[in-house]
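User: Design a sequence. Structure:
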């Protein structure tokens, strides 16, 4: 029996028998893993996918399905939106820092159109329809929407707004159960299977196996409690997801998310990161987090979001992830939404993919002063906020925060307030440092031989801020790179170490 309680690498010399073997072994059958498998197989490699659950999909299959792509994709062009790699890059550099990797952003933007075409060729369907309303995702099967605040302040003054949330077409959506992410994964899984990619399910990654030069030559896993040794002739690809559900790692690296993981799955326990760390892998942006805000975008766009001091702090019509980050990180998770009766009724009359976010208000009052008192806010704090907002809203403007004119209207008459304190949740964005060929980098800066990674176990294009679709976007994009790089690696020498094999 080999010790599976440690994450230290196992020496190949200790392996007396290999249970399975392939040219490229990929841990994780989500978006990064399946794209790595397809490209490795197309490069002529024998590919084996290892998945700890009972089927393909991972977090990707449960996601809304946004894939962040731009630069002038055929879908953007068909719907009349102009974009370029340079324009896309300008927005991302402003929206997803700090610590932004300029070379990676340029690489991703320049390859975005080709990547869209690759997905379409692999069977991923996109309907030529645009959804322009505020929302978490299109409620129907529209293929394109704004998914990062591109058309909201301050970014609409930095780069020309262009929608880049590409969503696979799917009817009968069930948010959180079966959304666009399923129709992203399904054709990709079918493509991988058609290329001869093999899969082993209920197989849990335990340790990496290295030769005498510290090159990764395989993995040790368990399958229904039984140890399985798997040899990788050319390379191992880690596509094991984030560390959002590893309590100790969250406490150590991203403590703002303690007790509030969301938009993730429990299998995201950081195993790939920890195993690579044991080999000396470098990490990056481990404190970076996506932060969702569990409010109805249609209601927020029409109202005022205020903090515990009764002050506005974010344009209410912007991307929900930006609202979430600013609420959790800068406002100590304190937020209230203020609407008058007309705004509330207008929001309720709209279509949304998230009707369960439309809860009754906690407070209602005839005047702002009365509402302010009922909420326990400092005297005149909310009144001065509403007075200032109404002064400019009468002219259809919001010079303070830049909310777009179509959502600006003075609040009047009776009002209500929603208690949105603690309405945040998210997942981690940091992970293994990789180069643009998805090779895992040692703390020295050199690649770790035989080890590749993509997806949320790596630090992707988002290093601080976030845009919806970035995880499926860079996971699939660099998953492809990982598969090609692993397939093109020179064969390992482990075969000669075990002449009986």
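Assistant: Done.
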């Amino acid at each position: 029996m080999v010790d599976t309680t440690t994450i230290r690498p196992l020496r190949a010399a200790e392996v007396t028998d290999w249970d399975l073997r392939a040219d490229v072994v990929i841990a994780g059958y989500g978006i990064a893993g399946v794209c790595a498998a397809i490209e490795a197989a197309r490069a002529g490699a024998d590919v084996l996918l290892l998945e700890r659950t009972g089927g393909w999909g991972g977090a990707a299959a449960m996601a809304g399905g946004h894939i962040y792509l731009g630069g002038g994709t055929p879908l953007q062009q068909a719907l009349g939106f102009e974009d370029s790699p340079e324009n896309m890059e300008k927005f991302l550099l402003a929206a997803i820092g700090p610590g932004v990797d300029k070379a990676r952003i340029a690489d991703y933007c320049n390859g975005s159109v080709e990547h869209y075409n690759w997905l379409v060729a692999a069977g991923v369907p996109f309907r030529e329809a645009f959804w322009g309303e505020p929302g978490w995702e299109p409620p129907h099967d529209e293929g394109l929407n704004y998914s990062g605040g591109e058309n909201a302040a301050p970014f609409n003054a930095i780069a020309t707004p262009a929608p880049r949330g590409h969503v696979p077409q799917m009817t009968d959506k069930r948010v959180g159960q079966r959304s666009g992410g399923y129709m992203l994964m399904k054709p990709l899984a079918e493509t991988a299977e058609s290329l001869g990619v093999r899969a082993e399910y209920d197989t849990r990654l335990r340790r990496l196996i290295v030769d005498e030069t510290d090159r990764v030559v395989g993995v040790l896993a368990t399958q229904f409690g039984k140890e399985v040794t798997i040899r990788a002739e050319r390379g191992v690809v880690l596509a094991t997801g984030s560390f959002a559900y590893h309590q100790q790692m969250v406490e150590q690296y991203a403590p703002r998310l303690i007790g509030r993981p969301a938009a993730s799955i429990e299998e995201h326990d950081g195993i790939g990161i920890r195993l690579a760390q044991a080999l000396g892998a470098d990490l990056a942006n481990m404190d970076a987090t996506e932060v969702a805000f569990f409010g109805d975008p249609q209601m927020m766009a029409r109202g005022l979001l205020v903090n515990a001091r009764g002050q506005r702090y974010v344009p209410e019509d912007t991307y929900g992830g930006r609202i979430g980050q600013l609420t959790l990180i800068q406002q100590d998770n304190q937020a209230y939404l203020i609407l008058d009766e007309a705004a509330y009724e207008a929001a309720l009359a709209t279509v949304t993919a998230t009707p369960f976010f439309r809860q009754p208000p906690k407070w209602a009052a005839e005047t702002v002063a009365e509402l302010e008192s009922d909420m326990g806010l400092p005297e005149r704090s909310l009144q001065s906020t509403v007075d200032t907002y109404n002064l400019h809203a009468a002219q259809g403007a919001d010079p303070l925060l830049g909310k777009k004119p179509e959502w600006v209207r003075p609040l009047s008459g009776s009002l209500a307030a929603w208690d949105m304190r603690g309405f945040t949740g998210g997942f981690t964005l940091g992970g293994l440092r990789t180069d643009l060929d998805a090779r895992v980098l040692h703390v020295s800066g050199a690649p770790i031989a035989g080890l590749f990674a993509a997806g949320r176990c790596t630090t992707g294009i988002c290093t601080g801020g976030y845009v919806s679709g970035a995880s499926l976007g860079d996971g699939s994009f660099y998953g492809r790179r990982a598969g090609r790089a692993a397939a093109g690696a020179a064969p390992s020498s482990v075969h000669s170490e075990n002449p009986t094999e």
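Residues 233 and 492 are 5 Å apart (CA to CA). The longest strand covers residues 226-238.
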